[in-house]
Amino acid sequence: MTERPTAAGPLSGEVEAFLTELSRTASAATLDAYRRDLIALLAFLAERDIDDWRQLDAALLRRFLGGERARGMAPRSLARRRSAISRLADHLVTQGRLTHNPVALTRAPRQPRHLPRPVDVDRLKHFLEAPHDGSPLAVRDQAMLELFYSSGLRLAELAGLDLIDLQPERVRVLGKGGKPRQVPVGRHARRALDTWLALRETLAAPGETALFVGNRGARLGHRAIQQRLALIARRRGLDEHLHPHRLRHSFASHLLESSQDLRAVQELLGHANLATTQVYTRLDWQHLAASYDAAHPRARRRPATEPDEEPS
Q1: Which residues are catalytic?
Q2: Gap between the Cα atoms of 276 and 266, Å rounded
Q3: What residue ranges in the chain does DSSP mark as E strands?
């Protein structure tokens, strides 16, 4: 088991206090990422013999973030690092260690829009229906695959599921920020889950509440789920990289193509803003134009055979 890194130095006490406070609401993945980000900041400050938070200003943060970018840090990771420092700075302001948040005076890195390409409907159907060896692990993996695609879950949402969260036709998940929502479970996913539940006790440790467990009987971790999906994709001959977010994106895209109900997809995905859903599901111009023409009373285009001018 990898030992969790800890903050060190004269400024580490406030960082640890902030992380303890953050742990009440943030996911384990967010907490680990923020810990790494803030330890990097502490190392930067220690190299410059800075031992007072009042010395933390916008110019210093620009040098820190600029150095991270020069070392090749991706824009998304850089934005998260900036966000971690900003939330720490807010904490320091409330504690009287800073008079204001200096991160507000720095610019956020521009984010490229790299959206995952959804898997083709027919290819995904063939992939999900491919036979497996019927072992407990294979049955578990099939249930995870079906549930990812059936309900559009995030990786953390699926990994965090307990037995009590599963209902006959729906599942209760905790989304970002600990916000709960309920999503339907399709019949194929329900069948796969029932098969897994019949075998789960062969793997699960006594008293374990997690829906999905590993060989040691404990809750299956994020990395293990990602690795299993990639392994299954190779075994079943899917010549594309498969990861949980791609299944979620395929769920959203395929559902939107069929229903054309953006609001419903937003609710199912657990997005706070509709704009997030529009970007995430990659609406194209043809889809938007068709919806506009069908719905707006003064938007319908004239037939191609209609003359440009009315006869006099």
Answers
A1: 154, 176, 245, 248, 271, 280
A2: 8
A3: 170-174, 180-184
Count the Cβ atoms, other than its own, within 10 Å of residue 98: 19
DSSP structure string for 13-54: HHHHHHHHHHTTTS-HHHHHHHHHHHHHHHHHHHHTT---GG
For residues 231-251, average pLDDT: 87
What pLDDT, in 10s, does the model give residues 94-134? 999 999 999 988 887 665 556 667 888 888 999 999 999 99
- Confidence (pLDDT) at 306: 41
CA–CA distances in Å: residue 87 to residues 25, 41, 116: 13, 13, 29
Residue 259 token pair: 């229903």
User: How far apart, in whole angstroms, are the C-alpha atoms of residue 33 and residue 18?
Assistant: 14
Name the residue among 8, 107, 11 with its Cα closest to residue 59. 107
In this predicted structure, the answer to whether residue 42 has a pLDDT above a threshold of 80 is yes
How many whole angstroms separate alpha carbon 177 and alpha carbon 158?
A: 15
The verdict on pTM exceeding 0.85 is no
Measured CA to CA, the distance from residue 92 to residue 99 in angstroms comes to: 8
Yes or no: say if 102 and 50 are a contact pair by the CB < 8 Å rule: no
Task: Please check whether residue 193 is in contact with residue 143, taking contact to mean a CB–CB distance below 8 angstroms.
Answer: yes
Q: Dihedral, CA atoms, 68, 74, 79, 84, nearest 10 degrees?
A: -60
For every residue of 190-240, DSSP letters joined together read HHHHHHHHHHGGGTPPTT--BSSB-TTSSBPPHHHHHHHHHHHHHHTT--S
Query: Residue-wise over 179-207: b if at least 16 C-beta within 10 A, else e?
Result: eeeebebeebbbebbebbeebbeebbeee
Q: Which two structure tokens, joined as six digits, stand for 39?
A: 């330890």
Q: Report pLDDT digits (tens) over 176-224.
A: 877 888 888 999 999 999 999 999 999 999 999 999 999 999 999 999 9
List, in order, residues 6 or more apart from 188 with CB less than 8 Å away: 128, 146, 150
